[in-house]
Amino acid sequence: MALASPITTHFVLGSELIGQETIERGHINQTYMSVVQKDGEIGRYIYQHINKSVFPDPPRMMDNIKAVLDHIHAKRGTAADCLELVANADGSYYFKDEDGEFWRCYRYIEDTSSYDIVPNPEVAYQAALAFGSFLNEISDLPTDGFHITIPDFHNTEFRLRQLDSALANPVAGRLETAAAEIDFVNRHRELGSRLMHVVENYPEAVRIVHNDTKVNNVLFCGDGKVGKAVIDLDTVMPGTILFDIGDLIRTACNAAAEDETDLSKVIFNKDHFAAIIRGFAESTGPSIHPAEWDAMPYSGAVITMTVGIRFLTDFLNGDTYFRTHRKNQNLDRCRTQFELVRQMLDSADELERIVMAERDRLA
Ligand code: ADP
Ligand code: GN1
Ligand code: MG
After folding, report:
1. Structural domains of the chain sorted by starting position, each given as residue range(s) with its CATH number in brackets
2. Which of 51, 214, 341 to mutate to test the pocket of ligand 2 (most atoms within 8 A of CB)?
């Protein structure tokens, strides 16, 4: 794969590359931070090589991102503390290199920090406020102008069908290694319809959502106390807010890393769950549909289950979707997800009480 360096000059015209580092984060795209000099001034930029096997139509994906960013910048009257795309020389927001690979460029947002593991409820609350405020800012965007970049992205029943295809034709030896996880899925297949039923039966609840609200997709201010910018907009598409609440619960309530191999460290933190519900309720409360409140207690379990199914499917398929750095990493990721689901389901009554108390507080 080409390095970002020859790409730099296509976006920041007349610049000279003076430094570059690879950012080892994210399972899909490849990200670089470049330092360039132009007219005596130093600037930092983010360059991303877009994964075409995951996003087959990068120009359409960039249309979605541009629509969201233009909307937010216009409302705020500034692009400060927000993602900001840099245009290519021809005015488009992607560059196609001689190998047919797609690249894009953002201004680097300075003085930030982020969390892979959330240390306390206050950080979970601030992350929920950041995503909730982002959703509020784009709540008036018409959904029909958006491209569906990855169809059925959070459709758990579709993900179960993909798993079934992988089960029918697995990489040799992997079915046996994953026997316990396959059994776990088979015992919880009924979770599959719990969020999609909102999308299918309450079209008025459907709006543009982020769809990848991993906690490290909020850049916090340098001191790590408050959210500064929501990033990683590749999957902005129509959906229910429950997808975003659920994915933040998945990542911000886990005491361990997503690929932790010692499952005794994977502890679902209910105080973080309560903080996330409070953060979304305070920022987006009035726009939450009654059917979304009803399904909210399960949103974390369903999204975590869905992502776990995707990791398991990829493991059985031979690790072709999520980037891996070591053997069995996708299976390890699947195992942490299913351990979290198990704990969430064990606490289902308590999670429901937390959600209902928040709903009553707002009423
Ligand atoms: P992925 O889709 O692979 O997760 P992201 O868009 O989330 O990629 O970017 C990967 C990492 O790069 C982020 O976690 C963040 O640390 C950093 N990053 C991305 N965009 C910016 C930006 N505009 N300013 C500063 N850091 C950024
Ligand atoms: C991927 O790109 P990244 O790492 O933020 C994936 C998400 C998964 C996540 C699991 C486009 O997100 O759906 O929840 O990994 N993104 C895509 O960590 O598939
Ligand atoms: Mg990311």
Report:
1. 5-110 (3.30.200), 121-362 (3.90.1200.10)
2. 214
